Phosphoglycolate phosphatase (Momordica charantia), 306 residues
Amino acid sequence: MSSDERSSVAQLLSTGNARNLFDSVEAFLFDCDGVIWKGGKLIDGVADTLEMLRSKGKKVVFVTNNSSKSRRQYAEKFHSLGITVSEDEIFSSSFAAAMFLKVNNFSPEKKVYVIGEDGILEELQLAGFTGLGGPEDGKKTGDLYVHYPIDHDKSVGAVVVGVDRYINYYKLQYGTLCVRENPGCLFIATNRDAVGHFTETQESPGAGCMVAAMCGSTEKEPILVGKPSTFMMDFLLKKFQFGCSKMCMVGDRLDTDILFGQSAGCRTLLVLSGVTTQSILQDPSNGIQPDYYTAKVSDLLELLGP
């Protein structure tokens, strides 16, 4: 699709263009929070829609910026909601952080400090790296009034920052020391989402808040591995035998999901079941327009039929 077409106003999904979209792609890439579920509740019609897509030979993949879980933990969540998904069908930003270190030959002898949750720590371990911090450091307090240098591990070669519901001053202090004082220490962000859905009814501070704090204290910008960075797309392309033009990215965020899809050359479908409203989409100041938009994922099923 040309750049002129991509910059045009998004089309409301209809019977006609839904069929055209369906016939033009081989795989649907779904964000999770606000698209598949909100908090611990599945959004209505999602299970039947995924089943329909698979029954018609479409590949279904889940690409999430939420780093709180590993691929294994996400597969367990899907199963608890009645949907069978394998770990190989899940690409999380926690996995992306570990893979970034691996493909860039990060030394296993170096350690990784995590401002984030168990998902990052588990993916790091699976990739052969030693992770420090995480929820355990949420119990610690910063040494705010001491007059001598804080002791931090000089072997930390990377600090990975994701969403962290256990964030505190100690973690920010430790991570800042590693980035500023350990030679060559990498500063990696799983994503910069401002908010996310940890409950069905409320939006909560996202990883972007934690990343912004580290940007302020380190005076550095992070390496971004989650959406809209196309780093994860490299792994998707290895999995499938077709290119990005045969994929459709389905998400609820313009600045991550839709921008990710557009940057990679995918078709894009915005659903209004998450953080983006129709008024935000159609605001004159919004410069990111998906190919299509609709209320929710199950509209695909309603428009295409079983």
In short: The CA atoms of residues 152 and 177 lie 7 Å apart. The chain has two domains: 11-65+227-304, 95-224. The first helix runs from residue 3 to 6.
